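User: Can you predict the 3D structure of PaaD zinc beta ribbon domain-containing protein? Sequence below.
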Amino acid sequence: MGIIREVQYDANSFTIMITPTYSGCPAMYLIKEEIIHNLESQGIMNYQIETSLAPPWTTDWMSDEVKAKLKDAGIAPPSNNIICPQCDSSEIEVISDFGSTACKALYKCNQCNEPFHHFKQI
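Assistant: Sure. Here are the predicted structure tokens for PaaD zinc beta ribbon domain-containing protein:
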């Protein structure tokens, strides 16, 4: 998702700099735990994980691969032309500007009648 900003290695220690998608992002704890799990599963025990809020994260940092994974998970990726991730229809309506987290909005597809989240473009 482009939140890992920098990885440094110095004197047998790694420093990983991450930026949240939003201030107060509820996923940051899980993201840090996943980073720790991946480091330690590779035998890396000497590390620091730091958070940087500047510059602020933007959806421009998301790769096409990440956007495809969001769509595969049923979440419409950030875009000015929102389409249903289930049936690719553009016949959609906003249900709520906020979904399960502040970075997502809740939509409904009028073609397949399925609700879905849209990752807001920032």
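The chain has a mean pLDDT of 94. The first helix runs from residue 28 to 41.
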